Amino acid sequence: MSKGRVFSGARPTGRQHLGNYLGAIQNYVALQEEYDCVYCVVDLHALTTLRDTEHLREWTREMVLDWLAAGMDPEQTIIFVQSHVPQVTELHTILSMVTPLGVLLRLPTFKEKARQQPDNVNYGLVGYPVLMAADITLYKADTVPVGVDQAAHLEFTREIVRRFNNHFGPVLVEPQAKYTDFPKVLGTDGESKMSKSLNNHIEIAATPEEILQRVMTMVTDPQRKYRSDPGRPEICNVFQIHRYFADEATMSQIDADCRAAKIGCVEHKKRFAADLAAYFAPLRERRAEFAAQPDYVWDVLADGAQRAKAIATQTIAEVREAVGLP
Ligand code: TRP
User: Fold this and answer.
1) How much distance in Å is there from the Cα of 271 to the middle of ligand 1?
2) CATH 3.40.50.620 domain locations along the chain
3) For the stretch 91-102, what's the b/e string if a residue is b when 16 or more beta carbons lie within 10 angstroms of its beta carbon?
4) How far, in Å, from the CA of 223 to the mean position of ligand 1?
5) Sheet holding 5-10: strands in order across?
6) Domain spanning 208-279 has what CATH number?
7) Shortest CA distance to 239 belongs to which of 272, 288, 277, 201?
């Protein structure tokens, strides 16, 4: 039996942080075992919200370096940049003809973006989900790993596929979402979701010194004012994130020591920082090796684009035929 095909896309955001790693990258890497995977840097999608585009190349390279260092295997998996396979824009245009405008304007994701950038409610922003549907269907993916924040976009894609296939015949594959229902990873402030734009993040490829520096600024249990106060690990964000990078025995010991005020927040943070640095040491090393070859990432992406294009060309031919384009 042939393997299913996974497609997922991520905006080029540069060096990846713990939130990206736990919520997406880890999963992308694991799915390679079971599926033929296609992972895409969605640079065109990024243009819908970016005013300053001078970092796009650098952020693409940095993100892909983290992906590769985390174990994405370019021999097996197709890793490429969205705009390197321009057939996606053709499919986007064709799909836009079976997309009711009202549906797009009612999507909560669109409304939120329009609120966030009221002076830049561009046409691309409205069509964002159509481009995403084009991504997924161009590569005939049957499985799409995404966060639950993308649920509306996935449902939209499925609806557009059904409409297209009803009109023109069964050409496109209706994809299944595979939700990565990973709990939200909070930033160093302990309040908001970890994100680069809030600068409350910890990069996975940070040096041990940088990790320690960031971890030291983390908010713990706000009720624990003095070293002698007992702590509440269930409230403490350091504890909550530490759990993903240490074994159970370690964590239940820290849990007990924190509640009994045998271990202070500073001491726990040092321990967490050390565990994080150790966990990511192999990734950091691999990353340095890849980064030392200036062309490596671009070579991987060029090869990925070529393999992606082979699939895309085939799909576009079928779509054009079905639609009846001369
Ligand atoms: N919209 C997704 C996000 O903001 C990114 C994305 C673009 C995507 N195309 C995709 C995700 C196709 C999955 C499949 O995170």
Assistant:
1) 36
2) 5-185+294-323
3) bbebbbebbeee
4) 39
5) 78-81, 36-41, 5-10, 143-146, 176-179
6) 1.10.240.10
7) 272
- Residue range(s) in the chain whose domain bears CATH number 1.10.240.10: 208-279
**CB 48 near ligand 1, within 6 Å:** no
Place of tokens 């370019």: 74
Question: 183-235 pLDDT, tens per residue?
Answer: 889 999 999 999 999 999 999 999 999 999 999 999 999 999 999 999 999 99
- State phi, psi for 177 to the nearest 5 degrees: -80, 145
Query: For the structural domain made of 5-185+294-323, what CATH number should be given?
Result: 3.40.50.620
**What is the token pair recorded at 154?**
């996935």
- Give the phi and the psi of residue 22 in degrees, each rounded to 5: -70, -35
Q: What is the pLDDT of residues 111-162, one digit of tens each?
A: 999 999 999 999 999 999 999 999 999 999 999 999 999 999 999 999 999 9
Please state, in angstroms and rounded to a whole number, the distance separating the CA atoms of residues 67 and 113: 27
The CA distance from 148 to 81, in Å, is 23
How far, in Å, CA of 322 to CA of 130, rounded? Answer: 19
59: left (phi over 0), alpha (psi -120 to 50) or beta: alpha
pLDDT tens, position by position, 30-88: 999 999 999 999 999 999 998 889 999 999 999 999 999 999 999 999 999 999 999 99
Residue 45 C-alpha to ligand 1 middle, in angstroms?
Answer: 8
Residue 306 three-state SS:
helix
Length of the chain counted residue by residue? 326
- Among 27, 116, 131, 150, which residue has the most ligand 1 atoms within 8 Å of its CB, making it the best to mutate? 150
Report the distance separating Cα 146 and Cα 177, nearest Å. Answer: 7
Q: Is 222 exposed, middle or buried (0-12, 13-18, 19+ CB in 10 A)?
A: exposed
Number of C-alpha atoms within 13 angstroms, CB side, residue 7?
A: 25
Report how far apart, in Å, the C-alpha atoms of 113 and of each of 56, 106, 108, 148, 157 are.
Answer: 20, 12, 9, 17, 19
